[in-house]
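Inverse folding, one chain.
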């Protein structure tokens, strides 16, 4: 009986990952590459790249150097130092030198009715003079052709808000293990083919890379319209859709890379905040996603159990077909999941060896989702960007 039970789980695992692979192929058909914008005509105009920065000494130099290396586009870089208490300014100045394209805005306070990042970004937008506004984070790195590609793509497609899925770094083992299941969970919440749908679009944008037409940004009220949002990107996407604007999410590939956090605790805390807002603070939705992620992580265990129980059944009764069938079904599940995950890891720029830690990563993300649900249920505040936020559960 155990062999039959585990074989059923192994068969479902293999079929499930084949379905996932088919879903990925469909998503590919409806997701544009940011690099396609390099073949579009140059729309001209000035691009203002706005970067809110709160204690970003770890990454600010890389950000500045990447932006200043941009080619074939007119741009200015506006960095807003938001209540910094570290040496972000010193490192920024070292990277920028006397380049006149770099402007620095320093803030020493944040109003109570504003989220910290929104307030800093609003100050940057006010200081910006460009025809396009590109909001990005300090932990993002640009390849030299990114801004030209983004503006070309947005102009050619008459896009009001162009966002991009960036590649995530894997400089530490925990990034290689945690980032893939976290990113896949977010993609399950906001599939790009649904986001880019013309008829029934799902409101989504990635705050690591948001390019607005200046006219669109002003028309929807700028950051003042989303000033209390913990995740301003989702709030902006909803606002653009309310004004019948056009949103597209592109695949950045290696053109844009994000190094989110420098510790496992910081990474999980950041994803918890993202999942809470992505689920619209809905506790049952967070728990459902935790269940799905945990099942995905534990599926290989069931597959190997199918192999082991199948071999045992085979040895106990060599004449029965049950044992060999259970063993081969378990192998089918393991191989199918491994092949599909290896392809997904490679596409996301993650080391394929990270597949070996899939179960650990899934369980960590499942716990992160459950922690988010418990934070909402118990009224525990979250701290981010130098501010504390008391979040209320959303409607069921």
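Residues assigned per position:
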């Amino acid at each position: 009986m155990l062999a039959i039970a585990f074989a059923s789980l192994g068969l479902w695992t293999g079929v499930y990952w084949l379905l996932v692979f088919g879903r990925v192929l469909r998503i590919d058909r409806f997701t544009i590459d940011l690099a396609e914008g390099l073949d579009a005509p140059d729309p001209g105009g000035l691009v203002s790249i706005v970067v809110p920065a709160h204690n970003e000494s770890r990454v600010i130099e890389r950000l500045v150097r990447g932006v200043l290396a941009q080619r074939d586009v007119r741009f200015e870089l506006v960095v807003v130092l938001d209540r910094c208490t570290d040496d972000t300014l010193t490192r920024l100045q070292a990277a920028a030198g006397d380049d006149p394209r770099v402007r620095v805005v320093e803030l020493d306070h944040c109003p109570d009715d504003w989220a910290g990042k929104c307030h800093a970004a609003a100050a940057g937008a006010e200081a910006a003079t460009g025809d396009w506004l590109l909001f990005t984070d300090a932990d993002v790195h640009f390849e030299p052709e990114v801004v030209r590609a983004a503006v070309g793509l947005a102009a050619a497609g008459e896009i009001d808000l162009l966002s991009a899925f960036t590649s995530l770094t894997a400089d530490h083992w925990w990034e290689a293990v945690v980032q893939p299941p976290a990113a896949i969970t977010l993609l399950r919440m906001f599939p790009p083919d649904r986001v880019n749908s013309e008829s029934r679009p799902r409101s989504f944008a990635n705050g690591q890379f948001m390019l607005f037409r200046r006219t669109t940004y002003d028309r929807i009220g700028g950051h003042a319209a989303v000033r209390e949002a913990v995740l301003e990107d989702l709030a902006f996407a909803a606002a653009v859709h309310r004004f019948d604007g056009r949103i597209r999410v592109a695949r950045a590939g290696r053109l844009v890379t994000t190094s989110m956090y420098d510790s496992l605790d910081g990474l999980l805390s950041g994803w918890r905040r993202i999942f809470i807002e992505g689920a619209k603070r809905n506790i049952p939705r967070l728990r459902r996603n935790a269940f799905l992620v945990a099942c995905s992580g534990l599926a290989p265990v069931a597959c190997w159990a199918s192999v082991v129980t199948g071999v045992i059944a085979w040895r106990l009764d060599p004449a029965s077909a049950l044992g060999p069938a259970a063993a081969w079904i378990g192998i089918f599940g393991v191989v199918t999941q491994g092949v599909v995950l290896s392809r997904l890891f490679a596409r996301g720029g993650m080391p394929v060896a990270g597949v070996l830690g899939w179960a650990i990563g899934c369980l960590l993300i499942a716990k992160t989702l459950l922690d988010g649900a418990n934070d909402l249920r118990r009224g525990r505040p979250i701290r981010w960007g130098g501010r504390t936020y008391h979040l209320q559960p959303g409607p069921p």
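The longest strand covers residues 247-258. The longest helix spans residues 283-316.
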